[in-house]
Amino acid sequence: MANPPKAPQLRRGKSNGPKATSTSGTLVPLPGGAVVPPMPDHFGPEAQAAWEFAWTAGAGVYVPRRDMRAIVRYCELAQRRADLAAEVDEVGHVTVGSQGQPVLNPALRALMDVEAALDRLEAKLGLNPTDAARLGLTTAAVRTKLDEIRERQARARAGIE
């Protein structure tokens, strides 16, 4: 005898009914002020700056226990990017190959790879305006039409207009 059909809510997303909500991938601001955790000892100057930037940008959202690995990786990539950029600046975009021919500096390709990885990680962490808005991390106040009306009424009551 065949098993009875499952209820729509128990099926794996194949029902036409309401979808199960998941909080994975959604950043929820936490109450209270955020504290920047101590930074790893091996960080260079660029990684240190990235550490301060990331924890400040994610204040009240990032949780050290949950987000530490991703932010450490972001900071290490920022340091690697700075090191590779310095090498490319020193040697140039083109170097001499084994046969004496001009070749693309291998550090330049590595730099482009690191920058691509940084872009992806910045997007996941919401460290640029577009992705911060997508993740709901915006802090900018939005003026609504109602705000404008209230301001006009307040000015009119005060005799400013």
Fold and architecture overview:
The chain is mainly alpha-helical. It has one domain. Helices cover 50% and strands 4% of the residues. It is built from five helices and two strands; from the N terminus they run ααββααα. It has a two-stranded antiparallel sheet with strand order 1-2. α1 crosses α2 and α2 runs antiparallel to α3. The longest helix has 28 residues. It is extended and about 80 Å long. About 12% of the residues have low confidence.
Short description:
This protein has helices spanning 45-57, 64-91, 106-125, 129-134, 145-158; strands at residues 94-96, 102-104. The protein has 161 residues and is mostly helical. The protein has one domain.
Largest sheet properties:
2 strands, antiparallel
Poorly predicted ranges: 14-32
- The amount of beta strand, in percent, is under 5%
Number of helices: 5
What order do the helices and strands follow?
HHEEHHH
Average pLDDT reading: 80
Number of E-type strands: 2
